[in-house]
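Minutes, project check-in
Item: structure for the 415-residue chain
Input as provided by the requester:
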Amino acid sequence: MATDTPTISATNMDLRFATAGGSLSVVSGNIELLAGPPTQIEMVDQPPSSTPNGATFSAKVRVRDQSANTVPGIPVTVAIDSGAPALGGTTSVTTAADGTATFNSLLITGVTGTRKLRFTATGGSNPSVVSAPVDVTAGVPANLTVQTQPPAQVPNATFFGASVSVTDQSGNPVPNTSVTTTIASGAGQLTGTTVKTTNTSGIATFDSLMIVGSTGNRTLRFTATGGSAPQAVSTTVNVVPGSPKQIVIDSQPPAVVQNGVPFRAWARLADTSGNLTAQQGVAITASIASGAGTLAGNTVVATDASGIAKFDSLVIVGTTGTRTLSFSSTGLTPAVSQSVSVQAGPPRQIAITTPPPATVASGATFTVTVQVSDTTGNPVSGVAVQAAIASGAGTLGGTTSVTTGPTGSATFNLS
């Protein structure tokens, strides 16, 4: 490194002319001595030993004549002496009064690698000097390309992968750059490891991405951090149903059913987001989730090719009241139905609760009460009950036809 102390490049002098012996002499007028043409150039400030591609840096040289006087007003140009391809910025600077030329905005654009710069002064012997080596590293991110596209089809909530490459303006791989991926189009949530850092080859590999949501098409957006924040959008990813994770009710049981009377309900397999999973042969069991009684009928049904289990003859047997049903299968989250109001079933029993008197006078009025109930003893209202003489002679008078009330009873005033 040359010293930054300039040599005085001009001075004043007088010339004395004298005869032999010095008896006569004369002194000239003042003569100004200026620096001569450039014959030397030296590095004052070397360029940096390392610089990113496309980034500006500085360097400084000094021009001298044959007597080491600094030479002002001399154009100095700089070019790449070794390595390729291009040197940009201000590549021509005129020396200042102290003979220095300062290059404040040089930049090297091209592939990474080692360069040297040559600084050349114009005039005289056109002296030049070569800088110390400059290692050009990758610049800031300028381009992002999807190198490995995500699969054209992925199951919902299932891991998949993709990779991208990040380069600078000259196509050099940019390492240690953070890349984030998000859903560019389509609904749902992108989970898993959504942020990756590029390796030494400028590649960011996403090996555990997961889309969670409804089925349908998505695209992914990959964005690099830094530089111009380049982005790229993937090809279309079709999200299909994932593996069965839960049971959902496809067709609810009726809000009102009769005790002992068959009804239907359908359950289906679904993935974690509720998408229908078409898997055949999975046994689903129906049972009472809340409320008393027994659930009878076809309580175990295997799913069909569409993943649906069709319970077409379920029967609740027991007292009246509210029930809910549970549909379950091993390893899957069960589903619970809406409330089912169980009402009395068809009349299946009749009993005399207030019998007639053991003796009664002919023509006298007497009272008899009967109770109508279903198969499990729930009172059945609205049933027409007829009274008649079962054995013996005579005529039965009074009210011989009565409809059961809310308690299932019918009272006859007979004679």
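Outcome recorded: Confidence is low (pLDDT under 50) at residues 1-10.
No further action items on this chain.
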